[in-house]
Automatic annotation (TrEMBL):
Family: Belongs to the cytochrome P450 family.
Top-level taxonomic group: Eukaryota
Protein name as catalogued: Cytochrome P450
Species name: Aquilegia coerulea (Rocky mountain columbine)
Keywords for the protein's UniProt record, in alphabetical order: Heme, Iron, Metal-binding, Monooxygenase, Oxidoreductase
Taxonomic path: Eukaryota, Viridiplantae, Streptophyta, Embryophyta, Tracheophyta
Length: 476
């Protein structure tokens, strides 16, 4: 057994050794400084350890001090160049010499035809298809459904309870919203199986891509295969329903993608593209939104000034409504301070720590050569916590976002930038604001964990999932 695993590992690593030999033959004096490290592995475990210890920002800062603003290393099986700063962000989000291809682990789990992996015309075609469903004028009609999901969630997980752990229940909330609004997947055994497989899949998103039995990466691949099969089944059901006139094109994301008809056949999405992008939207909506809501709950328990201002804003909206009324688009537009609080949390603790690109050809950046096929890695905190951009960056101050146009471009990148800005921005905003409205107007809470720290895996995870003690308010 051990000999078989050893031989398998050697076979996996052999092509990487050949790649490194080729790299060494290049003109190394033009490459960025820094060691590539052990083939395939490099500094992957060092970065992952730093993320789990919540010291990833320091890990990158130490590299900058040692090697400068551009340096090379190996991350997740691929030679990589770390860049940072406003110019680096602009380069990552706008350069046509970079592909948006993700590390092999993410690409294997989410597929090769998702929006994160596409460039050029394919990126625009798929992005336009997703944006057609996620744009504000379409999402307005789903606010009432999202409101209803939040009400059901509170009845099941909050009302009548004295204690709960925030992150797990928020993940349940965002998963249920995604299932209902984006995929039309009703509660039941299939949704439960979907959730279980999905949780296993995301555990291996940032992994060294060596597929050996009993590893987290191997389990994630098997879970991804299960999810893909289930999504294909749903696509088949929606296609049949559309054909019989039993479903509308705007019923959910899948029916929307199936209903795209362009002037040319090439404009339509293939089944593989629908599967891959359903999985991408599901991953983005599940983790990032649940983390942000959790961190807002955490902040409300520790910052009485911010809490009072959010509560005042939300109570004014609540007072203007009759019992049983739903949140409206107009209500959401009044939640300006609450959203600024969310943006400031995203600045200090962005759910997505950084992102990857891949060079389409030999390119230069910062005076160095980045060879074709290498990864380029950017980290959000390098501008988010830059005191020349955000004075006193460690201080929590929602006023920074009163005039967002005053923030230099490509410096606040929690939602990406340029043509790579997150198409689910408005969906996430609605989800966050609806959730916070009902939480602060119906409950009070206090932290009851041992500490108030968090780690990354790769998303920020509060210690013990953020246990709190809650108390329901009297509804007047």
């Amino acid at each position: 057994m051990e000999l078989t695993l050893f031989i398998t590992l050697l076979l996996c690593l052999f092509p990487i050794f050949l790649l490194f030999i080729k790299i060494k033959r290049k003109s190394s004096n033009r490459l960025p400084p820094g060691p590539l490290g052990i083939p395939m592995i490099g500094q992957s475990f060092g970065l992952l350890r730093a993320m789990r210890a919540n010291t990833a920002e320091k890990w990158i800062e130490d590299r900058v001090k040692k090697y400068g603003p551009v340096s090379k290393l190996t991350l997740f099986g691929t030679p990589t160049v770390i860049i940072h700063g406003q110019a680096a962000n602009k380069f990552a989000f706008t350069s046509d010499t970079l592909s948006n291809q993700q590390p092999q682990s993410i690409q294997t789990l989410l597929g090769e035809r998702n929006l994160l992996a596409l460039s050029g015309k394919d990126h625009k075609r798929v992005r336009d298809a997703i944006v057609a469903f996620l744009k504000p004028e379409v999402l307005k009609q789903y606010i009432r459904m999202m409101d209803g999901e939040m009400t059901k969630h509170l009845e099941m997980y909050w009302e009548g309870k004295q204690n709960l752990t925030v992150l797990p229940v928020m993940k349940t909330l965002t998963f249920n919203i995604i299932c209902s609004l984006l995929f039309g997947l009703e509660p039941g055994a299939r949704r439960e199986k979907f959730l279980e497989s999905f949780q296993y899949m995301i555990e291996g998103m940032w992994s060294v891509p060596v597929n050996l039995p009993f590893t987290r990466y191997n389990r994630s691949i098997r879970a991804s295969s299960t999810i893909r099969s289930m999504v294909r089944d749903i696509i088949g059901e929606r296609r049949l329903a559309l054909g019989k006139g039993h479903a509308s094109p705007d019923q959910d994301l899948i029916t929307s993608l199936l209903s795209i008809h362009g002037e040319a056949k090439e404009e339509m999405l293939s089944e593989n593209e629908i599967v891959d992008n359903v999985m991408l939207v599901m991953t983005a909506g599940y983790d990032t939104s649940s983390v942000l809501i959790t961190f807002m709950v955490r902040l409300m328990a520790t910052d009485p000034i911010v809490y009072a201002a959010v509560l005042r804003e939300q109570e004014e909206i609540a007072k203007s409504k009759n019992p049983g009324d739903f949140i409206t688009w107009e209500d959401l537009n009044k939640m300006k301070y609450t959203w600024r609080v969310a943006l400031e949390i995203l600045r200090i603790s962005p759910p997505v720590f950084g992102g990857f690109r891949k060079t389409l050809k030999d390119i230069e950046f910062g005076g160095y050569l980045i060879p074709k096929g290498w990864q380029v890695f950017w980290a959000a905190n390098m501008t988010h916590m830059n005191e020349s951009i955000f004075p006193d960056p460690s201080k929590f101050d929602p006023k920074r976002f009163e005039n967002q146009s005053a923030i230099p471009p490509y410096c606040f990148v929690a939602f990406g930038g340029g043509q790579r800005i997150c198409p689910g921005y408005e969906f996430a905003k609605i989800e966050i604001l609806v959730a916070m409205h009902y939480l602060v107007t119906r409950f009070t809470w206090k932290l009851c964990g041992k500490d108030n720290k968090f780690s990354r895996d790769p998303m920020p995870v509060p210690t013990e999932g953020l246990p709190i003690q809650i108390k329901a308010k009297k509804i007047l």
